[in-house]
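Re: weekly structure request thread

Next one in the queue (375 aa):
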Amino acid sequence: MEQVQEKIFELYLQRLSGALSADEEAYVQDMLLHDAHFKAQWNQLEQESITLHTDEYLQQIDSASALRQIREERAAHHPVIHLKKWLAAAAVLLLMGSGVYYFFARTAPVISPTVAMQQQKQPVRLLLSNGEKVELTKDSGAKTIALNNATLSTSNGALQYTSADTVLNTLDVPAGESYKLTLSDGTEVWLNAATRLRFPFHFGRGEREVYVDGEAYFKVASNAGKPFVVHTALTSVQVLGTAFNINTYQAGTVKTALVEGRVITKGKMNERQALQPGIQADYDAGKGFVTSHFDEEEVLAWRNGIYYYHRMPLAALIATASRFYGMRFVLDKNKAADQVVTGLMDRNRLEDFLSDLKTTAHIDYRLSGNEITLK
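Done, posted below.
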């Protein structure tokens, strides 16, 4: 009997936290109709939940405590846990506090729904100055590509090369992907989704100059005689040897976050802003620079395929998710674009992201080809 009660409790917690699969939901409905004991236990759980205001409790904790707990788990190098799992654990603790369900002393397992996600991602491409296009695969095998003006070496989503050509080429990373590039001077560049980097195979005698549109993390090789300059549509960042993140995703804004070293970033009207490690400069074309401290774990999490979002309006979320996952997200006409949500995205766990939205914000979805409608 105790095992039966435990199973009912597990199913109820999964329903409460939004993690009940379609098959399990059908099972619950069938048992409620045909099993008197199951129905009695389920009704008791529902009554206890109402008495303890469990649903209100979960809504209060989902946007702060859950995400903080997840980040602490990541900082301790544990696998990423998702909001639905954390909320299920919170529900266990709350209901166990009543003293009624003493027999259940572990977190209810969370079963993600199985959805056939067909992410139709485009390949990473290198666009050469002569118009030639080279597709770069992200498989684990090493590969060498011989061109007229360069020899490329790719492996595990990273590109190195040898060449004396100083003409600009473009590395194009599509939505849903990321890529790493090592420049001729040893500078390492990590490119986020929907990002383009223009760079020469070989730097000339003057400054080492590159051009970025999107988001990239630079670990610049030191060379006191040849400053490294990163150009965006609105700013330029000059460094000697340092590590920093630059983000141009939001139109009219450039965010430069310094991890180590020292940089000077300049605006279109020659405004200048020096940065120290731990400081981020946000540049607005109309307002100039604003500086603030930044959280390195959050700003750089994209390099590990993670993105945190805090009280983000759905209108902004669908744009971010489309870029991050390489699928087209749209809002149902009946869904408020200004509704705010908090959580995380894992590039390898699209289904978990969608399930988290359902759990924490009661947002369901509909899949059609490469398009996901939030409703």
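The two ends are 40 Å apart (CA to CA). Residues 36-52 form the longest helix (17 residues).
Next request, please.
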